[in-house]
Amino acid sequence: MKTIIITKKSDYTWLRDIFPGLHPLLIPLCNKPFIEYLIDFSILVGSSGLRIISDGVISDVENFCEHGSQWGVEISYANILPSESLSKVLEKNSRFCSGERIMIISGLLFIHYNKRSDYRSFFASLPPGEIFGCSNGNLSLTGVPSELGKQETPPLLSPVVLDCIGQYYELSNEILHHRLADYVLPGYSNEAECFIGRNVVLQKSVTVIKPIIIGNNVQIFTGSVIGPGAIIGSNVIVDRESTVSESIVMDNTFIGEQLEVDKKIAAGNLLIDPESGYSLTMEDPHLLSGIKSKGISGSPFQRVTHGLTAAWMIMLLLLPYLLLKPFLKLSGCWKTEKIVYHSMKHGKKISLNRVSIEKQSILASIAVFLSLDRFTWLFWVLNGHLAIIGCSPVSVSQGIQIINNNTAGYRPGVFSYSEAEDWPQNTFDSDIVDHYYAVHSNLIKDIFLTQKALFNRIHHEDKI
Amino acid sequence: MIFHLDTSSEKAIGIAELQGRIDANNCNDLKKSFSQWLQYSSNIVFDCSGLEFIDSSGLGAIVDCLRKALEAHGDLRLSGLGPKVSLIFEITKAKKLFSMYPDSSSAVASFSLLGSV
Description:
The complex is a heterodimer.
Chain A lengths: L1 E6 L5 H6 L9 E2 L2 E2 H12 L3 E6 L4 H7 L8 E6 L6 H7 L1 H4 L4 E6 L1 E4 L7 H6 L3 E6 L2 E6 L15 E4 L3 H14 L9 E4 L2 E3 L3 E3 L4 E2 L3 E3 L3 E3 L4 E2 L3 E3 L3 E3 L4 E3 L2 E2 L3 E3 L4 E3 L2 E3 L2 E3 L6 E3 L6 E3 L9 H31 L3 E9 L6 E9 L4 H8 L8 H5 L4 E4 L5 H9 L8 E4 H4 L7 H13 L2 H18 L4
Parallel strand pairs in A: 1-4, 1-6, 4-5, 12-15, 13-16, 14-17, 15-18, 16-19, 17-20, 18-21, 19-22, 20-23, 21-24, 30-31
Antiparallel strand pairs in A: 2-3, 6-9, 7-10, 8-9, 11-12, 22-27, 24-25, 25-26, 28-29
Chain B lengths: L1 E5 L6 E10 L4 H11 L5 E12 L1 H16 L3 E5 L3 H9 L7 E3 L2 H12 L2
């Protein structure tokens, strides 16, 4: 079984008007992007591959889903023309389909499912054709059904087509109020009907009434009441004595003090009444406004200084690197491993050679002394993917969830703050040290800590 | 802003038609005009059917007008609020301060039916 997801611009014109720049497959439903629900569902159905097809730009979706390693399913992408029919789309993607059963999800179709259910045998046994269809979306199957393992009682499927803001609001509400247990949702959930993300600050006398979902990096100020039925995205501030109930607050939104947001959608400075569909762009930043994601790459001056330092180190170390590396490699003291890390630039990845040098000879000691194992990393500072000093870079396999959830304070560096402070590497404590300095660093601290990191690396380890 | 008096009932009710935008640029004009309107009647209706936008300064001006009307032993009632303007009144809780009516005639009638102050 494979799955094809087809979205055409005509399916989501309503969404583009409200959230320009946001691809519909990335619109959050209870803080989980829409596409993730589709991926989860296609996995439950038994899909081994998934192709996302669109007549618009899908680079954001590609950046988010990549090749699907996060879900253990292979994801690929294709473009179509707006006028192309389904048969033409299948014909163009015949190599992907290659005689297998194909589930086709067309339009902004949401399918309610239960994470504990197994839909594989049911979908395998269904005859080809349309399972659900309406003017704006349908769910269909192609290929030969299998009679093996046919289920006596078919699982209940209830598709919903997102075709207006009211439908989006209702669907979010339905998940929050009735189907929270059916889906894997982001955030910690120590008790039922309550999901809270990382770095959430609830000041004193804040009242939280379930069900609620709160994203990452959220501050709720004194005297506010959150819930019931509040879905609060990431990077949100709710100022003092405000009430948010039965509402959706999208990412990067500031809710001013003493406001009452009830049955509304707040997205930046846009306030939407989902019932009537009316929206209002607020001009008062103290009432409702957007929050620019806090830059963690430092001030422009700080970035320039990091770049200049990297350039100076490259010039200084180029000759020793070219001379020592071949010798060390031949003697077996120089070992490399290619690892893909998350970059400082949000959503980007970089492939770095992690070098380990065994201090078995004087040459190896000199190489360690000069930090030649990090030499190639310095080039990534020049194009802004790394800082000279920052957090230890997080590999894609290790921390994809962390990065995708916009954790503040991720600023990978050639050298790490925890190295400077001499903490054992790759531990929870070193992560905290890195995070602390990434948020609170300044140029002076960076210079001082870089020197410390270099010094610590020289004399502490036999093998780097 | 157009102001006229409705004398169809036993007492004169002032009706002010608010149009376009009320924001930081013209909220002081509203405050000044309102003080003059109070000389004709302390019971006033703001007909907001032509009001397209209001910001917090405008909202503050309308609340100031309400305060002045109450001090003059009258009342300020709103009519014909559009959905966008209603949103501002709703989230700032200003809706709770005012009596609101779908149109100016029902707002005028409310003064005689419910009895003004």
